[in-house]
Amino acid sequence: MAEQPDAEAELPEDNDGARDFIRAVGKMFKRARERAGLSQPEAAAALNYGVDMLSSVESGRRVASPEMLLAADKLFRAEGMLVAVSDDLEKARSKARARHPSWFRKFAKLEGGAVEIHEYSTMVIPGLLQTEPYARALYGVRQPPYAKEDIDVLVADRIERQKILHNWPPPKTSFVIEEVVLRRQLGGDEVHRGQLLNLLRAAELPGTELQIMPIAQQHHPGLTGPFILLTPKSKPQLAYTESHGHNRLISDVEQVRLMAARYGSIRAQALNFRESTELIEKLLGEL
Question: How is the chain split into domains, by residue range?
Fold first, then answer.
């Protein structure tokens, strides 16, 4: 079992030099700021960006937009040095958008070819069931924040992955969602309404089972956190967990067996299909 580090979706692999270029521009950005005699907080305030965003750009974890480079070039009196790399940086960003970190590519490939997917979710709607506005709202509250351009790409990627639910034959899928997730109005009333309606539609998809874990169920085996169980075609079942930016794809047979047993217990304690859809309809009526 290997623990995979959190990786920014816009960072490419090292095989074409794009990552090195992004980091080099970040160092150039930092040197220009320091020559201007500005601290990170001072520069961030003047540019109307968060300190976390500025720090991410300087360390090469985020890609500065052309607008940010132009504003920084003027603020730092860089005499066109930052603006000059804008086009090449956009090309590097495009390359980065075309692919994901290696750990995610592996997970996405397994998910796309899975014959079974089972997910227990405690904080947000499962990605395969999210509407576009909900996904956008979710990425929009990420800290440190994503640039708008990056959110567009991440949302598009998420929606693209949902096509697996409409394959034929479809994979066998089940989702258990904590009731508190359904009550959290992420993105506002209209986004929340659309998401609840989408859950009802998803519940009618062939091969898909949806259950809600009621708040009243105070003691159950899911209190250790969310996870996903994947069964690739003709391969052993795997488990996936994510917490505080650390992603783990688990292949150890005994660990996966225990998590599968835990999922079975969680499903047994959750509301059944009829009760779950009735709860969603009740919440819709309260909006």
Answer: 9-97, 102-285
- Give the per-residue SS3 of 20-59: HHHHHHHHHHHHHHHHCCCCHHHHHHHHCCCHHHHHHHHC
Instruction: Write the CB contacts of 30 (distance below 8 Å, at least 6 apart in sequence).
Output: 58
Using CA atoms, how far apart are residues 202 and 210, in angstroms rounded to an integer? 8
Question: How far apart, in whole angstroms, are the C-alpha atoms of residue 251 and residue 75?
Answer: 51
Q: Does domain 9-97 have CATH number 1.10.260.40?
A: yes
What CATH number is given for 102-285 in this structure? 3.30.870
Side chain identity at residue 236, one-letter code: P
Provide the token pair at 221.
Answer: 């085996």
The two domains 9-97 and 102-285 share their CATH topology (first three levels equal)? no
pTM of the model: 0.67
Within 85-222, residue ranges assigned H as helices are: 86-97, 102-112, 132-140, 148-161, 179-183, 189-203
Q: pLDDT in tens for each of the 287 residues of the chain?
A: 333 333 333 333 444 577 788 889 999 999 999 999 999 999 999 998 888 788 888 988 778 888 999 999 999 999 999 999 989 888 887 665 555 555 566 777 788 889 999 999 999 999 999 999 999 999 888 877 777 777 877 887 888 888 889 888 999 999 999 999 999 999 999 999 999 999 999 999 999 999 999 999 878 888 889 999 999 988 999 999 987 667 788 999 999 999 999 999 999 999 999 999 999 999 999 98
